[in-house]
Specification:
The protein is α/β, with parallel strands linked by helices and about 300 residues long. It has 13 helices and nine strands.
């Protein structure tokens, strides 16, 4: 029986992917990796194996990964610093005999992104390159932006009637974390994904007009698109209390959408998960409480 490993298993995406895998695979053949193994006690109780893995401790990773056949490498949250972490994990997986490693990347990771987003996109591009050079088989899961990550901004737009944006006419196909987890589990649980690049995207491509229309229908009152300059947008994020590095990254995402860098082909997600990905309308309905305007 194939032994499946999942790194970052204590994170939101890792936990949900593990749940999907454990529903379809013998628990004794599932190995979950985390810097905090104690946080995964419920999976140990369910029969899964839990091991410590810290990508900053490269010397220990080979032994941690030993015995795993297929590994999901979930990108860490150390933006701007995770390149070395990922490269250490990839090298250790190859040395441990892992036959295939799947990696959660970003849409169009091999393209040149705006400077503000380069700390993130460069890490993904370097990781993809390291995977290709490592020797064992690989699978790339190029995840679109999460619908989940827009919930607060869209709730604010519903409350104010204004969707503040720098996206221009750019389009994206945001996807739920749930659908990303289902897609990741699919490539772990089945064969035929060697050297495959999958665009893990939502149901359809959306520009800001389509997003505003969905918000209008959901809230029952108009939400209009208000385009601003990059400087005004970033300043507004800072005024709202976001840390400077997050405000810069969010501005970079807007610039990337405007440049067409997050517009990707559709269909891979549906093929992997066996159903149509969650739409923006379904997402808003499922997040009714958090997306309702405050009075």
């Amino acid at each position: 029986m194939t032994v499946i490993g999942i790194t970052g298993a204590s994170g939101a995406l890792g936990r949900r992917t593990a749940q999907y895998v454990l529903q379809a695979h013998p628990s004794q053949d599932v190995v979950l990796f985390s810097r905090t193994p104690a946080s995964l006690a419920e999976y140990t109780a369910a029969g899964a194996r839990v091991r410590h893995a810290d990508f900053n401790q490269a010397d220990s990773l080979v032994e941690s990964f030993r015995g795993v056949d297929v590994l999901l490498l979930i990108s860490t949250d150390a933006v701007g610093h995770r390149r070395a972490q990922h490269q250490a994990a990839i090298a250790a997986a190859a040395a441990a005999g892992v036959a295939r490693t799947a990696y959660t990347s970003v849409a169009n990771a091999d393209k040149e992104f705006p400077a503000k987003i380069r700390p993130l996109s460069d890490d993904h591009a370097a990781t993809e390159e390291a995977l290709r050079a490592a020797g064992p088989s690989w699978t790339l899961l190029r995840n679109a932006l999460y619908l989940d990550g827009s919930a607060d901004a869209w709730a604010h737009a519903g409350a104010t009637g204004k969707l503040i944006t720098i996206n221009g006419s750019g389009r994206q196909a945001p996807v739920t974390r749930e659908d990303c987890a289902a897609a990741a589990a699919a490539v772990l649980l089945s064969d035929g994904h060697d050297e495959a690049v999958y665009e893990i995207a939502g149901q359809r491509l959306l520009d800001d007009g389509a997003i505003a229309a969905a918000l209008t229908a959901h809230h029952g009152r108009p939400v209009e698109v208000v385009g601003v300059t990059d400087d005004v947008y970033e300043s507004g994020l800072l005024t709202a209390g976001l840390p400077a590095e997050i405000a810069s990254l969010l501005t970079g995402f807007g610039q990337s959408i405007r440049a067409g860098l997050l517009e990707t082909p559709l269909g891979d997600t549906e093929k992997l998960i066996g159903r149509i990905p969650t739409s923006i309308e379904q997402f808003l309905a499922a997040h009714q409480d958090s997306s309702q305007p405050t009075q």
